[in-house]
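Q: What changes when 6-O-phosphono-beta-D-glucopyranose is included in the input?
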Amino acid sequence: MKIQFEKNFWWGTAISGPQSEGIFAKSNLNIMDYWYQQSPEDFHNQMGPEIASDMYHHYNSDIKIMQELNLNSYRTSIQWTRLIKNIKTGEIDQEGYQFYRAYFQKLHDANIKTIVNLYHFDMPIELENIGGWTNKEVVDLYVKYAQIAFECFGDIVDYWATFNEPVVPIEGCYLYQWYYPKIVDFQKGIQAGFNTIVAHAKTVNLFHKMFKHNPNKKITVILNLTPAYPKDQQAENVEAAEIRDLLFNKAFLDTMVLGTFPDKLVELLKQENILPFYTTDEIEAVKDARIDFLGVNYYQPSRIQARTIPWNNNDPIMPAKWFENYQWPERRINPYRGWEIHPQTLYEIGINIKNNYNNIPWIVSENGMGVEDELRYQDSNGQINDNYRIDFIKEHLYWLNQAIKQGSNCFGYQLWTFVDCWSWANSYKNRYGIVSLDLETQTRTIKKSGYWFKEIIENNNVIEIEEGLIK
Ligand code: BG6
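A: The predicted holo structure follows.
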């Protein structure tokens, strides 16, 4: 079977500054840099972000590889802690500025449509020490930093993102102890989440003011969507899934795409007396902020049931009060990451955006498969034959294509990631790239999936899908 995407479809990869550049020459540390300094044992093989994939020194040759592979789009992020020298005054770090200027110019000259994201989990440690996203001063400092970034690079960067996966730092830093500072406090998490939404809204409004005469400049947010499937159609399971969806998806989708706060979510938080502190100006800013397109990261859905053991009301409140995860017996798992693989959900996301979110133009801004010990698949020429990754992508593209055929307005697909990169705590355990990285020498070698990507454009955006691949 063959599927085809339209002529101008964006094909590319996504990565982030803190996961790819290395710390070189930064005058400030972010929470991840600091966390590693404090507790290297929290990281796989005790490997930290100091060198990462050294894109600080390799961006020129990396962009050449992107061109060789016909990739017409890319996403990375600016590190707040690299562009800004004095986080409080907003004084620019000249070395950081020169680096990003040269990097983005190179991408611009290579005709690679680049989305520059402003924040990828990388809170400056100085601001974490005053409460991070729970502190409204941080919101103002973020907006100031965003303005500086727009002024510095707005002439050569057309596409911007305010945040990558704003729910993840809430989960990681305030609920489930994945990331430093490993706080467990749902109420603080709600405040941090709300303040992030406000920071996003104020930045979008500022951006539209600054670039109102230039329709080519566009701004988005990158949301990781994890649609919640109930165990079955029993009312309590359906209700549990609905609450999970409200807290982890709609809290961001509705506020950032529609400018509204879901009534049911507000009711739920009110009942528990955990509504965040807000001002009417902040609510107005959210109402006014309209993104120009939406970035969707899709890895896995969530499977939900009502609680099987009643919640103890003496325990501090957590989202688990309302639901439990459920193991779907038919699930397929990526064993290295423990995430379910369910490509059909991408179709459902596309239809949901079409039906409930004004059919806003959207892009798959991340999707991918992390695999451990990929050297097992290396052939005598040093190439990694990652057929599993190619199949994974094909399955997702099949379902994405079905959604587009039904009228969903998706204009591109970016794989996580370009060159194998460093990950929060998992370091280099799982490899996601279409280009492999030798950690000793920093040598790059294109994987089979990289060459497969290259052929898509050469084949007029037609992709051959083998019989039996789509279940
Ligand atoms: C996305 C993030 O959620 O998943 C990336 O935006 C991350 O930063 C990617 O690296 C893969 O997850 P992980 O934890 O395996 O690196």
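Observations recorded in class: The radius of gyration is 21 Å.
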